[in-house]
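step 4 of 6: structure.
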Amino acid sequence: MDAPVSGLAPVFSIENEAGRGAAVIVCEHASNHFAPEWGDLGTTAKTRKSHAAFDPGALDLARALARQLDAPLISGGLSRLIHDLDRPPHAPTAMPIVSQVHKIPGNRELTTTDRLRRVRQIYLPFHAALSALLAERLALGMPTALLTVHSFDPVYFGLHHNVELRVLHDADPTLARGLAKAATGFSTRLNEPSGTWIEGSHTLARHATPLHLRHAMLELRSDLLDKDLPGIAARLAPLLSGAIGAA
Amino acid sequence: MDAPVSGLAPVFSIENEAGRGAAVIVCEHASNHFAPEWGDLGTTAKTRKSHAAFDPGALDLARALARQLDAPLISGGLSRLIHDLDRPPHAPTAMPIVSQVHKIPGNRELTTTDRLRRVRQIYLPFHAALSALLAERLALGMPTALLTVHSFDPVYFGLHHNVELRVLHDADPTLARGLAKAATGFSTRLNEPSGTWIEGSHTLARHATPLHLRHAMLELRSDLLDKDLPGIAARLAPLLSGAIGAA
């Protein structure tokens, strides 16, 4: 799969495109890369390493799950601060001025040309590629659930989270409920967003619901991934397989 | 806008792309054209002129409304019998074997290669173009409602319809309800599909709902369009403007 290239980084990548498993995995916030043409948006090094810029650990987890489920994986190649792939272009959080405590000066005075360029070069190619991946599997009659893989910070606006796994869904709760019920080994919450997480998943709304695909968004606490990502993946993969099979 | 070309016909066309009105108009079933590379699918001339192949009058109505609302218009350039643009690729009605009383022999034994080719050459480019049209308007901050324009046959499975205008919606009923309420000059039904119309509009589900756009699908009885299309358009346009403004 050829992805458009921004600077030296692909805007997105597809791995294991021909995977025969019954899921497609998406990792929108995989990367904290700022390609030269976008610059670092005036952010500090601290911001660029933080959850504001990407979901630490999410790409490695998504890759491990894709291997175990033999699923295609599509992941973003640039920081979400340039254009958040899980937000529509007109959402204030698509090109945020502030993300939690982090300021993004380079997003402060965007012209319409700036916005259009990001939409055309980042948002549209990613979603067109995911759309093609799904449509082609469906045309071939392949069973396909849509899983999105995220991580969340144990500390959010100064508060510590004890939750380890969040599972969220769009219109059809079947897969998310099945997974949340089965995930007894994790401290799990179903559809319990963090304080400011009110928009839902654009990826699920845009790709899963209109195609009637079973779906779930997974969010793992990132300190758990730091400690033992292979262990988390090994525990999650059979739960996902089971929930997909039952859904 | 360059559309991919199938034979001599564009797979889709965009007119008035820079329209400044507060709507985008879609006409999925605009054409009964069968480009050489697809052939006529073994259909009879009667089938190719019927509602099975397209929505007679819908394109001209959509054009008249687009002019009056200064709206961009995207329309399909090939018969829906090759790939119905208002259906996902895995819907049985996307490449139907039978449509009402009409047999479509050329859809009977499609290989996976045939299906993939139609998805890649027809379904995906159309939806990618509509997606780009909407995303770019949203990035520019332009108010955008999504209207899809269809026609229906006064005779359906042998029964005559007295209804003149059907208005349907996906998740957000606001615009459709407003329009149905205002359309007192027409015999109007809200969300009252015909007997087999059970899938909803894929276009609305795929483009309007994930972007939180106000939306409606309009279906006009085609004998009314035959008789006085300009008159219907002139009556509908202000109703649409009013409903969009109020929604």
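step 5 of 6: annotate
 - The interface with chain B takes residues 88-90, 112, 115-116, 118-120, 123-124, 127-128, 131-132, 135-136, 138-141, 202, 205-206, 209-212 of chain A (CB under 8 Å).
 - The CA atoms of residues 60 and 229 of chain A lie 8 Å apart.
step 6 of 6: archive
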